[in-house]
Amino acid sequence: MKYDFTAIEKKWQQKWLEEKPFTAVTGDKTREKFFGLIEFPYPSGQGLHVGHARPFTAMDIICRKKRMQGYNVLFPIGYDAFGLPTENYAVQHKIHPAKVTHDNVENFRRQLHMLGYSFDWDREVNTTDPDYYKWTQWIFLQMFKKGLAYKASMPVNWCTSCKIVLANEEVVEGVCERCGGEVIRKEKSQWMLAITKYADRLIDDLEDVDFINRVKIQQRNWIGRSEGCELTFETNMEDTVSVYTTRADTLFGLSYVVISPEHPLLEKWKDRIPNWDAVAAYQAEAARKSDFERGELNKDKTGVRLEGVLVTNPANGETVPMFVSDYVLMGYGTGIVMGVPGHDQRDWDFATKFGLPIIPVVEGGDITKSAYTTKDDGIMINSGFLNGMTVKEAIPAMKDYAVEHGFGVKKTNFKLRDWVFSRQRYWGEPIPLVNCPTCGWVPLPEDQLPLLLPEVESYEVTDTGESPLAKMTDWVNTTCPQCGGQAQRETDTMPQWAGSSWYFLRYMDPHNDKALASKEALDYWSPVDWYNGGMEHTTLHLLYSRFWHKFLYDIGVVPTKEPYGKRTSHGMILGEGGEKMSKSRGNVVNPNDIVAQYGADTMRLYIMFVGDFEQAAIWSTEAVKGSKRFLDRVWNLAEAAADSYDVTPANEAILHKTIKKVTDDVDSLKMNTAIAAMMTAVNELTANGVTRGDMKTLLLLLNPFAPHITEELWETLGFAAKTGKMCCQAEWPVYDESKTVASAVDMAVQVGGKLKGTITVPVDSDEKAVVDAAMQVEKVQKATEGMKIVKTILVKNRLVNLIVKPQ
Ligand code: ANZ
Ligand code: ZN
Fold this sequence. Notes:
By secondary structure, the chain is an alpha/beta fold. The chain is about 35% helix and about 20% strand.
């Protein structure tokens, strides 16, 4: 029979749908639970791409293997379906975004089935479903009630082309991440979530989770905890100025103070600064630059001296001038910095440009070049009472001195900012709050959730930047839930990151209408055991969801502090030629085409074989054929298998070795080497010949990788009938360490280069043992009769050649 992958794959996908072997059972105490999670896709119009197939297939393999190992596995799927591309498409084609979403989801679902993933389809979730976003809204309300959601007018990133407010993370190198358009700063009243209140815990609790190191490092850097102090200086104006510094030890090296162009003190001092015009012009110039540009090192430093302003250094009583410069950002620390050019590169650049003194205060400092990379063990100089201390000692010493003398307080700062949590867009969760002239912001009563998105005529954003919902006056005008007076609904919607911040919880109990999930389900399934996803989500989704989860933990909803026990990440699949796959380059591989031509099992095998899972890999359609040929060989081997269900002794070692390798490699995400081991095994089995008993092990090992072909062969070789189970339900094979090495080998025996027979000896037998065994062979005895062995040529485990001479 021919390997008809199309028919086979259809047959088994149908059977899995009907028999549901992948159902997760909440509360099952007889088995250990395993919750494997992948990042649910955004159902774009382009459909699933090979970039999805890599992580999805890997987690499918892990989950299939865990099931066979006896675990109660939860492997769910859903759709993160609110968001801009759908909305833009809806605007363009005048189709309701719900309809666009529905159609895209259908396409995705078909493709996911096509690839043979073992999802528990009864747990599918969709963030745009009112039954789902009801709970997103509910969580938001709990945050609001606890003071974590607040409205603030603040400068936001405004994309001039998308006409929406962008989170800082969505501005990449000064332009809009989505469209590449110009981003300007605009004041807007926004809903904010106080993620910074969780900053310490988001860093500290990384100790307790098994995340790959690069994820931990990125999260720590993004949160950016900085431990320093605020120092307050007297000035000749009536105000003091405070700076934030991590290097209090360098205070004796102060040669000027710099203030950010946006700092409110400037406005206050305006009338007493003789060169105010120059300052004002500088402020206007700075407003046109992004924080990114301003913060860059190696950038030419600019600034204006504040004439007449003098600041007193509390360490030595000397006065220094004050400048305004855009390298100081308003949003960090106090917005004022102490200039220590001897040990800070940016300060050095500035001081050099403006001819300010450069005072080294740590030995080894070179005033022709900033020694800003000062080591902890540098020795303090020119620094009064600090002289002779190491930097490491001087930092706390100066901090303590400042605290004692009333000009300093210890302070921890974070790079992390609160999360801008509102968008002026239609296709998002409505924010369930009402603005009442008497009561202020009032939450909707929980029994009124979900607050449904109303039908609107146009999804187009308004030119003023208000959400399309603002035009729906019937919907906007409402009564205050608290006083019953006239009030208005919030018209902003939630950002796309909302629904994905808790979706893994909904999987635990997706149809619950009393709670986001039952306590029983949460207790049973928490936490996610293994979450694999993209590195690009490390500082956004992964951090946001950890924040939400910690909040839910604090209010007693979830049982664990952290949502995910383990986090891994995959490399990207690049197009042929090594470039990123993109429509414009025309190098996008559509999984549909590969499946049609070679089958889903080949696709799955190839995407796992393509390279080290954590590294980027280059797609090669030519190499796909290699995976197909391997499956052909498996098929042929099964067809040629002898009827016996016994294991052939000669195959025992290779089978046990392969079980060991595949078992270990899947657990450490080395899918490529697991496949390589199975390829080697198939070669050896083909050479030796196999029984059905030998094939059983191979099919079990290969099943998570290539589930359809193995299921079919499992059936044709009689295992389905014998066990009453599908291959995916059978038990994962276990290996016997002692059997992973062959115990005996057959060796050829030659005399004078002529074959005289074979012997069976223990593996790695030495020369004496081999010769002794050889001498037992009758033909060998005859050939050496009356001869003297002058030389023995031994090729370990293969052959021995006895060179003889007449005696
Ligand atoms: C004096 C000094 C001397 C500094 C020295 C550094 C080295 P991290 O670690 O990132 O928190 N700084 C403070 N606020 C700033 C702002 N709003 N804009 C730009 N720079 C600011 O960095 C803290 C250091 O960054 C602070 O310590 C301050 O410069 C600068 F040898 O103070 B330092
Ligand atoms: Zn009211």
